[in-house]
Design a protein that fits this description.
With 189 residues, this protein is an alpha+beta fold. It is 49% helix and 18% strand. The protein has 6 helices and 4 strands, in the order H-H-H-E-H-E-E-H-H-E. The two termini are 20 Å apart.
Length: 189
């Protein structure tokens, strides 16, 4: 922590103000808005797909539309936008070292009692010789996710579709509330 941040923290504590009361970094606010747009759009499309054809249609949406939504939001806002997981479904979503460390931290924070829906982390990191602002927001497993990601057996139709799109699938065995993965965003400084 820098001297100015330490001084601010000391003065804020004396005044009864916490960091939570201070306006967040505008990059964090922007990243949160992008994550909200991504989650809202993807959730809406998943709900429609499930209503029209059940969980097998949801696999199609996750396979085709999730990357498109991420690319559209990234292009619109100037961020690299995606999803990753410690137990990923697609190799294209493999976490890098920083993402792995953040998700492991999320798991530890969840185990210590933090609400998984509130887990997020932001930092400026050096990557490929450049300074990048990085942000991650946890994705807790919802009941609707269990038809394709749960610990129980999936339907034969869903299994066939998963094998078609994700032959190296590792994204199974989740229970409601588990950390399914995280939204991950970055932007060069």
């Amino acid at each position: 922590m820098s001297k100015s941040m330490l001084l601010f923290a000391t003065l804020a504590a004396m005044a009864g103000v916490s960091f939570a009361d201070v306006e967040p970094d505008p990059r964090v606010a922007e990243a949160r808005a992008i994550v909200k747009a991504f989650a809202t759009s993807l959730q809406g499309e998943l709900q429609t797909a499930i209503k029209e054809g059940g969980p097998v249609n949801a696999v199609e949406v996750c396979h085709s539309r999730a990357p498109q939504i991420a690319a559209e939001l990234g292009q619109q806002h100037g961020w690299a936008v995606g999803r990753t997981s410690l137990k990923r479904r697609s190799p294209s979503n493999d976490p890098d070292t920083w993402e792995t460390q953040v998700m492991q931290d999320f798991e530890a924070r969840k185990a210590a009692g933090e609400d998984p829906s509130k887990l997020e982390y932001a930092a400026v990191v050096e990557r490929d010789g450049r300074s990048s602002f990085r942000y991650m927001k946890a994705i807790p497993t919802q009941p609707v996710c269990l038809a394709c990601h749960g610990g129980g057996a999936v339907s034969a139709e869903v299994e066939a579709k998963l094998q078609q799109y994700y032959p190296d699938d590792q994204a199974r065995g989740f229970s409601e509330g588990d950390l399914r993965g995280a939204f991950t965003l970055s932007r060069d400084q």
